[in-house]
Amino acid sequence: MSTTASPSTAPAPPAAPTPLRRPRLLAAACGVVAIVAFLAVAELGALLLGGAGSPLVAVGSAVIDLAPPAAKNVMVGLFGTGDKVALFVLMAVITVAVSAGAGVLERARPPFGALVFAVGGALALFAVTTRSGSGTWDGAPTVLGVAAAVVVLRVLLQKLRRWEAAAAVPSASPRPAATERRVFLVWGVATAAAAVVVGGASRIGTASLQAAAAARRAIRLPAAASRETAVPAGASLDVDGVTPYVTPNADFYRIDTALRVPSIDPADWRLRIHGAVDREVELTWDELLALPLEEHMATLSCVSNEVGGDLIGNALWLGYPIRSLLARAGVHDDADMVLSRSIDGFSAGTPLDVLQDEDTAALLAVGMNGDPLPPEHGFPVRMVVPGLFGYVSATKWVTELEVTRFADAQGYWTPRGWSERGPVKLESRIDTPRGGASLPAGEPVAIAGVAWHPHTGVKSVQVRIDDGAWQDAELADSVSADTWRQWVHRWTPSAGSHRIEVRATSADGQVQTSVQRPPAPNGATGWHTVQVSAG
Ligand SMILES: Nc1nc2c(c(=O)[nH]1)N[C@H]1C(S)=C(S)[C@@H](COP(=O)(O)O)O[C@H]1N2
Ligand SMILES: [Mo]
Q1: Domain ranges of the chain
Q2: Residues with a beta carbon under 5 angstroms from ion ligand 2
Q3: Could you tell me which residue, 346 or 137, shows the higher pLDDT?
Q4: In which order are the strands placed within the sheet that holds 281-284?
Q5: Mean pLDDT, to the nearest integer, of 348-367?
Q6: Atom 24 in ligand 1: which residue has the minimum CA distance?
Q7: Where is the Oxidoreductase molybdopterin-binding domain positioned along the sequence (predicted)?
Q8: In this model, does residue 356 exceed pLDDT 50?
Q9: What is the pLDDT of residue 409?
Q10: Could you say which of 3.30.565.10, 3.40.50.300, 2.60.40.650, 1.10.8.60 is the CATH number of the domain covering 427-534?
Q11: Rounded distance from Cα 253 to ligand 1 centre (Å)
């Protein structure tokens, strides 16, 4: 490199070449910013995936698993119980050094620096996707992170090169070196700052998510002080393809507006009951668990469920009657609604008389089928009200009950085109055979499904084939009117195409309507119909 001294007599020469003194150091810094961007994007992705897929965690674990025993012994010998911290620091130092090197390499021989990140990313991806229990999307944060790192590296180095060029041959550059320098520094510092903030916040978020998950695992729910009779053996028909009477938690439908499942440490959970009450009540998790809890089975369904749809499930809920809490608060006479609010901003307006009814097991629930509520089903506490659609009653992650009036307040979905009140409608569904099934002609087949009218109960179910006569199906038992009932009708198809329809009659004599209505504004109606062929 050659430097041309500028004549000292000239007044402030504008374009004197003053080559960068430490271009390689700056390129190394670009590499470091790129790795920070990688971590930030990957950690944000992991947070959005609910705490899964963090390359930081996966690579750390992989290194611990792969390290030969001798290395482990050296680490433990050197650092004692601080061996994990020491390992982490060592990994961080190596990662930063390699990234800095990649920056220098990318400046000298593009795209080899970027390639270093790609290779490192591939190794991290391998660590992430081969972890036990890794899911389909767990690799996504790493892939996005590598993309971010490569973009950041290339963009910053492009700015650095412009600065270098402007400094070396000022006459060939459209902008003065000082401007290029500022552009480079602003980009570098801004990117680094954004990455540190996003990455740090994401890591903290993931850590709190995992703390809540750990708290959930540690919970031992108390036994119910009162429980209804055990599930009768006759509640489950022995028919292939029929929906199980009790829906396993893992198969239970999930509907909510939450982009990310809220994570609440039960130790931090509070329920506040306020509004039109004599005295505000505040309840902690420990206080709730110390109350005599009830166990009650109830079928929960979504107003958005289409005829024949699967946004419905039946579970055993453990919780405390909301009516008892309302009594404790002393509800004012002019109130007619309870607006329950969730930590995520969702709210539901539930008729006060339903919540106060002695015969309705409206619960502040903590347990689902014997386990603490799964996070996506409202951990630590949710509401369940037999007979009402979820959107007006089943607030998950509930933190607040405001006693108010329908005239004064609205639940989340009401201004969005759904009815103020949402009792569940009488419905029935054919689970088997599936629409479009081809059956062997002349061989008996079980037509079976479920029927529900929670809190009213189902009295009978009928099946009709090809506009024939309605025939009574065999009904399974149920724990109570609050749950669905399985049904089965045995039939031997003749060759050809057939239409199967189902309708239920509720315990109060109402026959399920054939009128087809869409889910909005207060629940779909119509008979579920499937078309099959036999040959
Ligand atoms: N916090 C919160 N609670 C909520 C919702 C929601 O969006 N946010 N959706 C409701 C609706 S529309 C239904 S149908 C039920 C579904 O409960 P599940 O996901 O446990 O099946 O939750 C209700 N509780
Ligand atoms: Mo819903």
Answers
A1: 23-205, 233-416, 427-534
A2: 255, 302, 390-391
A3: 346
A4: 281-284, 270-275, 398-404, 337-342, 347-351
A5: 98
A6: 395
A7: 259-413
A8: yes
A9: 97
A10: 2.60.40.650
A11: 10
Give per-residue burial for 458-479: e unless 16+ CB within 10 Å, then b: bbbbbbbbeeeeeeebebbebb
Whether domain 233-416 has CATH 3.40.50.970: no
Please write the tens of the pLDDT for every residue from 381-400: 999 999 999 999 999 999 99
Which residues line the pocket of ligand 1, CB cutoff 6 A?
252-258, 300, 302, 342, 344, 346, 377, 390-391, 394-397
Q: In what order do the strands lie in the sheet with 474-475?
A: 427-432, 445-452, 485-491, 474-475
Centre of ligand 2 to C-alpha 123, Å, is 42
Q: Which of 254, 255, 269, 388 to mutate to test the pocket of ligand 1 (most atoms within 8 A of CB)?
A: 255
Among 259, 302, 342, 396, which is best to mutate for testing ligand 1, by the most ligand atoms less than 8 A from CB? 396
pLDDT per residue over 122-137, tens digit each?
999 999 888 877 777 8
